[in-house]
Amino acid sequence: MPTTDSTTPATKTCRYCGRTLPIDQFRRRRAGQETRVTECRECYNLYMAVFRRSRRLKHIAGFNAAIRREFDLRKVTALCNALLSRLGGLDKFCTLWKAHLDAAPPGSRAALDSFLAVLRLVEIADTKRRSSLDLPIAL
Questions:
Q1: pLDDT tens for residues 73-100?
Q2: By the 8 A CB rule, do 23 and 12 touch?
Q3: Among 2, 66, 89, 92, which residue's beta carbon has the most beta carbons within 10 A?
């Protein structure tokens, strides 16, 4: 059973938001230890949410580049399926792609890459549709 020292404060100040909160609002450094981290749970959760979102947006940027480079229909389909399963479906994918495009400054390389990736997907979908209908492909 852990012992509590009378010199240990019952509150702590978060280094990010500056609020003084009860000690239980700070995560432990390691399980079983009494030392606590310097950011409150709310600031940590906000930081992790931003971190995870930026990591997902990097997946979209990588996807844009991979789609632009790829010419094989089967590989593009595999790329799309892998990203959709990784991100949790088409709705999530579209939401993240829009967030990626909104975050890019107009006229930037990231905005151009997103636009070119969409054009490439449309081109591939059109090619697939034409081949399934046995229509001649215009060059």
A1: 788 888 888 878 887 888 888 887 788 7
A2: yes
A3: 66
